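Deliverable D5.2: sample structural annotation.
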Amino acid sequence: MSVHPELTPAPLTEDLLRGALDLERTEHGVLPHRLPARARAQNTDGQLAMAESQPSGVRLVMRTRATVVELDTLPTKRTYVGAPPRPDGVYELLVDGRLAGRAGVPGGNTLTIDMNTGSAEVRPGPAGTLRFSGLSGDVKDIEIWLPHNETTELIALRADAPVEPVPERGRAVWLHHGSSISHGSDAAGPTTTWPALAAALGGVELINLGYAGSALLDPFTARALRDTPADRISVKTGINLVNADVMRLRAFTPAVHGFLDTIREGHPATPLLVVSPILCPIHEDTPGPSAPDRSALREGKLNFRAAGDPAETAAGKLTLSTIRDELARIVEQRAAEDPHLHYLDGRELYGETDFAELPLPDALHPDAATHRRIGERFAKLAFHAGGPLAVAGRGPVESGDAQEHS
């Protein structure tokens, strides 16, 4: 970590952070969480614990005249046994809504995961410093978006001018829940995950509760959605239920009803959009679980295959086709008494034509170009005038409207 005497420490307080549901005090500083403490206490799964602590959509937002801003962080990097090293997480700086810088923080802890055995080991490492300099001395609003896929403890914030919270802009708050695709998977950076792009195009404030591998209709996640203030809500579910092979159709239907019932306890009339899975050919008609392709691992590549038997769908094993049909039926049934509930087929965001042009690199997750496409389409389908999550005064959006964020 570097320390410059001309910089003044600024407290890392909750009013500077957006997109997190909880701040945990650690021996180093604060750790943003995307699940509240009570939900974390009920979770026993290491995958979800890792995912919710990765700050997708979490950003520091401040108003200042500072020309230099520094942030000390302790990241936790991920590596997979047999796979190429993952790139460092990306921090992105927005100044008055426009992308003004990108950087990483070296060092940090290392979490090594063995996909074959399911084991994980953490090796401690040093904290590092993020520095953005050469900014104008004018009053401006600064956002530092934290890496969407790298657990990040915040240790210290410094600037060469006072910082203060940015007043609320009056934007609608969009609360979204989904899988690793919503979490950000292989997006180029935190402002170009598809939910971040869609939020920029839709003119809404994002709270992203996309959890890699963990959109599993957990009741504590439903309660987190219930208890979080929001003006628009979307729930994208299906792929993790298939690739984790955690339930059959008999359990799926009441679980979806229960999840939506819980959300409605806190948001009885909030526009609520249920989104089914995007196209994923390996699981369209073949149930899970997903498994790493061992031959690809031997070549240093991470790729997935469907390990289930299509014949087992007769016994209630879930496929993406089954889930889409059932989600559409459930929403149609409930919408008769809930006019603010809506459904979107995920293949409208990414379907067969898209797969032919932009195939999923590892057979499960979209790449950076596909995140952009999904974000742009979601904004047009959900947020434009007449859409199920339409924001007053927001007309049809164009892809160029998001260029300032990317």
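Annotation notes: The mean pLDDT is 92. The two ends are 28 Å apart (CA to CA).
The annotation will be released with the project's public dataset once the embargo ends.
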